[in-house]
Each structure stands twice: as C-alpha cells, then as structure tokens.
Amino acid sequence: MKLMIINGPNLNLLGKREPEVYGNTTFEEYFSELQAKFPQVQMGYFQSNIEGELIDKIQEVGFEYDGIVLNAASYTHTSVGIGDAVKAVDAPVVEVHISNTHKREDFRHVSYISSGAKGVILGFGLQSYDLAIKSFL
Ligand code: CA2
Fold first, then answer.
1. Which of 2, 18, 19, 72: disulfide with 8, CB 3.0–4.6 Å?
2. DSSP annotation of 77
3. What is the pTM of this model?
C-alpha cells in the first residue's frame, strides 16, 4: 500500500507557531511516528506553500499511489485548481484538517476539495492523519 500525505501552505510551521491551535509537534516528528505506527504502508510526505506545486504533486502520485491524504490548508477554501486535480486523478483522496473548521470563521466552512474526496476527517488534531491512513487499510 502506497500513500502520499500532502500538506499545503504554512503547515511547515506546525509545532513552531500558534501551538494553542495547531499543537507543538512538528509534522516531521509526527511523520516519523506515523511511519513507525504503519510499517506496512509505504508512506511519502510532501509540503508546499505553492498552489501549482500541490497540483503537480497530486497529478504525479495520483495515477501511481493507492491513496492521497490531503490537507490543502488555506487553499481548501479557495482553490478550484486543487479541487479539479483531486477529481482528475485515479487515487482516492481523503481530505484532512487538524482543526474543526466548522467551529471557526465562516470562510473555513467552505471546501473546494470535499466534493471530490473519498471522505473528510477534521478536528482531531494530528490524529486526523492517523484516522485517514486507517481508512485506507
Ligand atoms: O485545520 C487545518 O488543518 C487547516 O487546514 C489548517 C489551515 C487553515 O487555513 C485551514 O482553515 C484549516 C492553516 C494551516 C496553518 O498552519 C499553521 C501552523 C502553525 C502556525 C501557523 C499556521
């Protein structure tokens, strides 16, 4: 089983800024934990702050991997392009969010990803990613 985790803008700051919202673990630390927890999964990780790079990565892995775990971060609420890429590829995409976006500002209640996603997991902190990976097993 080959899964790719794709994180969008500012998620490189996890564990370094706003710990009250996003916790104090960096994604690199958490990714090592995930690899240890799911040794049967060949897992990749990609982060970018650039919309086009996220689309390129979805296209690159979307015809080869068994699934994508995608946190498009703020692009979730704005990007028709990422939403279209999710719909265009063969690999099922599980949309994840660390925070419960429905408890936050109204603009975060809209997702351009959800309509193309296999499912959506949000509000469980970093555990949202664990749950998304489990959904593929
Ligand atoms: O809850 C999530 O996972 C979000 O996708 C995170 C995005 C936000 O725009 C979405 O509405 C919900 C923001 C990611 C920013 O990450 C930071 C991490 C540490 C410090 C500052 C930002």
1. 72
2. G
3. 0.97
Q: What is the pLDDT of residue 17?
A: 87
pLDDT at 18 over 90: no
CB-neighbour burial class of residue 107 (10 A; exposed 0-12, middle 13-18, buried 19+): exposed
What six digits make up the tokens of 19? 């710990």
Q: What's the confidence (pLDDT) of residue 49?
A: 98
DSSP-derived secondary structure for 12-54: GGTTTS-HHHH-S--HHHHHHHHHHH-TTSEEEEEE-S-HHHH
Of 2, 13, 119, the C-alpha closest to 73 is: 13
Q: Please, what's the largest Cα pairwise distance for the chain? A: 39
